[in-house]
Specification:
Phosphoribosylglycinamide formyltransferase, GART, seven-stranded mixed sheet, binds 5-O-phosphono-beta-D-ribofuranosylamine, Formyl_transf_N, single chain, two-stranded antiparallel ribbon, Rossmann fold, EC 2.1.2.2
Length: 200
């Protein structure tokens, strides 16, 4: 048992490669936290298979009340949205202020908000012709993709193929999500005037 390890819930809707990065980096103790539950609003999400393979409890939940009661039952300290495609209810966002981290596959505030998810983000990046894109982790507030930014990683756009770009960005998503969760579990993330300071 790790000393003052944080209890983490990971919410998914799909393949779960970000979840896998967190599983790997909590199990090897790089992150001082333990994933207590993986929750999906899609019963066929491969991420639930990843949880099962790692012997982590998984749950298919669509009802927001059940979601909140499960988070409380598991005494969760940190919620991670790792490709979770549902909007969280305000009650959960308020109860877990600055304790919900989301990973988004662009440099927020570009290419985010309503309708910008998954491959659509990268298609819009290529369509616009921006020279750089990347990934962002941020705390979740009541406005989609607008909470305080924790980390970003930037890459040059060198392809016109959205799926190829998605795979390149995904590598950096895993990197900054693991780092962001590590810092959270070490109590190194402070939100001051709406901006995140990563401190000692
Ligand atoms: C990632 O691109 C993430 O940024 C977005 O949804 C995708 C989830 O991918 N929110 P995975 O399920 O973690 O592989």
């Amino acid at each position: 048992m790790k000393s003052n390890s944080k209890n983490i819930a990971v919410l998914i809707s799909g393949g779960g490669t970000n979840l896998q990065a967190l599983i790997d980096n909590t199990r090897n103790n790089y992150i001082n936290g333990e994933i207590k539950i993986v929750i999906s609003n899609n019963k066929d999400a491969y991420g639930l298979e990843r949880a099962k393979n790692a012997e982590i409890e998984g749950a298919f939940i669509r009802d927001n009340d059940k979601l909140l009661s499960l988070l409380m039952e598991k005494d969760i300290d940190l919620i991670v949205l790792a490709g979770y495609l549902k909007i969280l209810p305000e009650e959960i966002i308020r109860k877990f202020e600055n304790k919900i981290i989301n990973i988004h596959p662009s440099l927020i505030p570009s290419f985010c908000g309503k309708g910008f998810y998954g491959l659509k983000v990268h298609e819009a990046v290529i369509e616009k012709g921006v020279k750089y894109t990347g990934a962002t982790t941020h705390f979740v507030n009541e406005n989609a993709d607008e909470g305080p930014i924790i980390m970003q990683k930037c890459i040059e756009v060198k392809t016109e193929d959205a799926e190829e770009l998605q795979q390149e960005v995904l590598k950096f998503e895993h990197e900054i999500l693991v780092e962001s969760v590590k810092y959270f579990c070490e109590d190194k993330l402070k939100v001051i005037d709406g901006k995140v300071k990563i401190g000692e």
